[in-house]
Amino acid sequence: MAYPTDRKYTKEHEWIQPSGTKATIGITDHAQDSLGDIVFVELPKVGAELAAGKTFGTVESVKAVSDLFAPASGTVTETNPDLATSPEKVNKDPHGSWMVKITLKNAGELDGLLSAADYEKFVAEEAGH
Amino acid sequence: MSSVEASPAGSTIAVRKTALNAVHRQMGAKMVDFNGWDMPVEYPASIGGGIINEHLAVRTGVGIFDVSHMGDIRLAGPQALAAVQHISMNDASRLEVGQAQYSALLYPQGTFVDDVIVHRLDENEYLLVINAGTREKDFNWVRDNTRQFDCAAENLSDDFTQIAIQGPKGVAVLQKLTDADLSAVKVYWVTRGSVCGLGNILIARTGYTAEDGFEIYVSAEEATSARVWNEILKAGKEFGIVPCGLGARNTLRLEGKLSLYGHEISDTVNVWEAGLARFCKMEKAEFVGRDALEKAKAEGVTRTLVGLEMVDRGIARDGYKVFDGGGREIGYVTSGSPAPFLKKNIALAYVPPEFAAIGTGVRVEIRGQGVGAQVVPTPFYKRAKKTA
User: How many domains does chain B have?
Assistant: First the structure.
């Protein structure tokens, strides 16, 4: 699957799509593929503060539990209501099934993240190990 | 995102491979280190895989598993029965030739070396099928504890590719490939027949999925193993056969409350605690662990294995702590997972007997929060008995 170029990526396999001072966050295709069937997504409440690099939620597949790490700092303005009842949507459409929307604290934080091409390279290198 | 496997993996000094390793990789299986073995955890969705799909295929149709990592010990000789009786807790004297039983090897303390399936292959010949992670330990233990008997212990673990064909349609699939009359083979019985043109293959109506099914033992030669695997897949195509990995194997056995070494049973858990009394024949005059078990029975247990179903939103996982309603720590989860067929979040846990009554409310600690669960009857899943 091609990684959309309208967003940035982390080495922890999250994506963040900025739009002015706001941004949308989710997990990558590679992340959903390594997790397998996703059965549970736990997200912060609206108003919660995310700190870049810190955990903000949990994704569980049948066999594994994974922390979600915030790609950037900000305040949660919305969480995806679909994921409470249909977490499998993340498997089907990882780059469309967003997890949270935030107001960015410092849009400059995104400069340090990976581009789609760099992320793809990173994933390929990781798989080579 | 950083991932923690719910099942602990062994260290990877020299990873071992089954004869089907290349086949799994070719099929695009996701491989994991399981007790030092490079094994498929699940197959790609493009070929019907994924833990949930694989699990459902076995419950409603048919799936095949490579379980060649399991070990095999042959005990043969004039005193083979006496030796088996000495080292295992079930009563092997009840076995007719061709019959098998679930049993366990115990330490003198009444705790588990391993659980096993004992097959009686001939008058004085038994085959013990043991776990992958305990192969060497088990073989050494069996050899050391059977020295006084006129019988030879042989480690055949590397000789076989063991393939499990599991699910209600398993019998129809395997029947296409063998001259043995499978309808005549009862559950926990074995027969021999040709399979895929290979003569004298051991065919057992056993498994680890709480479903009907067979396990066959063919040569561990790579090309032969691959050919048999592929012929089963081909024969099963009309029945919707799906290759299944260790992920589905774990969720299937958990729904059926089948014990897993290192989880429900271990060298620190005894037979009474594990709820396996019906496989332990105290009327046998002697076996390793019997004296300690007699004493333990008189003293009573301080913990017992129960089935939990999550009432609140959350998934209990292996090792999570269990609390009572008042916030006192009372036990721990041995295995916990979503149950794909039952569509519930279930777990097995050790708790004091006073919390074992069906309907008892407890809390499982999930990421620092006490999440509500209740004790439910086990096995969580039981397949309908065939009337025909």
Answer: 3
Q: What pLDDT, on the 0 to 100 scale, is given for residue B14?
A: 79
Give the span between the Cα atoms of A62 and B259, in whole angstroms. 19
Catalogue all structural domains in chain A, each as residue range(s) with its CATH number.
8-128 (2.40.50.100)
What's the pLDDT score for residue B7?
Answer: 44
DSSP type of residue B189: B
Q: Which residues of B touch A (CB under 8 A)?
A: 1-7, 30, 41-42, 50-52, 247, 250-251, 313-315, 317, 337-338, 340, 367
Of B214, B311, B307, give the one whose Cα is nearest residue B256: B307
Find the distance separating the first CA and the last CA of chain B, reported in whole Å: 51
Give the domain CATH number at B93.
3.30.70.1400
Residue found under tokens 């913990």: B303
Element spanning B71, H or E: strand B71-76
Whether the bond into B379 is cis, omega within 30 of 0: yes
Nearest CA distance, B48 vs chain A (angstrom): 13
What is the complex's ipTM, to 2 decimals? 0.91
Chain B residues touching A39 at Cβ < 8 A: 315, 338
Q: Strand pairing of A49-50 and B71-76?
A: unpaired
CB atoms A63 and B247 under 8 Å = yes
pTM to 2 decimal places: 0.94
pLDDT tens per residue across span A104-115: 999 999 999 999
Give φ, ψ of B240 to 5 degrees: 70, 35
- Bridge partner list, B201: B193
Query: Which tokens in the block code for residue B30?
Result: 């996701």
Cβ–Cβ under 8 Å, residues B93 and B85: yes
